[in-house]
Specification:
- It is built from nine helices and seven strands, in the order βαβαβαβαβααβαααβ.
- The protein has 254 residues and is of the alpha/beta class.
- The chain has a single domain (11-241), classed as Rossmann fold (3-Layer(aba) Sandwich).
- A seven-stranded parallel sheet has the order 3-2-1-4-5-6-7, sandwiched between helices.
- Helix 1 (20-31) links the parallel strand 1 and strand 2 (35-40).
- The longest helix has 27 residues, at 108-134.
- The radius of gyration is 17 Å and the shape is globular.
């Protein structure tokens, strides 16, 4: 059986697709000929990002991932506009640096926001788009959910304790839904380490340099590395489900 990196005729939703990592993912999928739907809280930014993608048929829309009614409405619009949905990439997420021993600094409002967006938002998207993703296809392909997790979910090292816990929850959800939604829908998580994106730019360069030195492959991930992993899951790793794929250069080894 030959392997092709083409997603021609497929429709993909990328939540948070106008952000630093999300926009790179969206572009790579568009380069593979997918029609990409970008969601973002900022509708104008979503539309501008979609308009800048190569190819045709892209769409930018404003919807919050914790707005279940809005997501259901979007699913109805996708069904009417495209007639199908093949891949959901749950990329939307939030965090804020809080030292792990600063228990008071990790206030209830931040904890709730992180879990609302990072976990409940991802689940809400799967719930809203399940019908479209599970629909039978003439080519026999399965629907696919790719959750953007983090090695923080397994190492317990990350921007704050709640963020680590939210990504651990995303990993658990990935395994649970892979079992529950099979065989119609595959569910896989992609777990980057440090990514040289918008969040990293706000960090002390000395901290980033330490992370580079402790990474066996001697660099931090780029958003393009995450995008290539997602493309591989969608086009090549078609017998994979319920797994957490690291994109971390071997960082947990040190």
């Amino acid at each position: 059986m030959g392997i092709t990196l083409s997603l021609a005729n497929q429709v993909v939703v990328v939540t948070g697709g106008a952000g630093g990592i999300g926009s790179v993912i969206a572009r790579r999928l568009a380069e593979a000929e997918a029609r990409v739907i970008i969601t973002d809280l900022n509708g104008e930014r979503a539309q501008e990002t979609a308009a800048g993608l190569p190819g045709a048929g892209h769409w930018g829309v404003s919807v919050a991932v914790d707005d279940s009614a809005g997501l259901k409405g979007l699913a109805d619009q996708i069904a009417e506009r495209y007639g199908r949905l093949d891949v959901l990439v749950n990329c939307a997420g939030i965090t804020r640096p809080v030292a792990h021993d600063d228990l008071d600094g990790l206030d209830d409002e931040l904890i709730d926001a992180i879990f609302r967006v990072n976990w409940r938002g991802s689940f809400a998207c799967v719930r809203a788009f399940r019908g479209l993703l599970a629909a039978p296809r003439a080519d026999g392909e399965r629907g696919l959910v790719i959750n953007i997790s983090s090695i923080a979910g397994t190492t317990g090292i990350g921007s704050n304790v709640a963020y680590c816990a939210s990504k651990a929850a995303v990993n658990a959800m990935t395994l649970s839904l892979a079992r529950a939604l099979a065989p119609a829908i595959r569910v896989v998580a992609v777990a980057p380490g440090w990514v040289e994106g918008e969040y990293a730019k706000r960090m002390d360069p000395a901290i980033l340099e330490v992370q580079r030195q402790k990474t066996p492959l001697a660099r931090l991930a780029q958003a393009e590395d995450v995008a290539e992993a997602i493309l591989a899951v969608a086009t090549s790793l078609k017998f994979s489900t319920g797994c957490i794929i690291p994109v971390d250069g071997g960082r947990p080894l040190n």
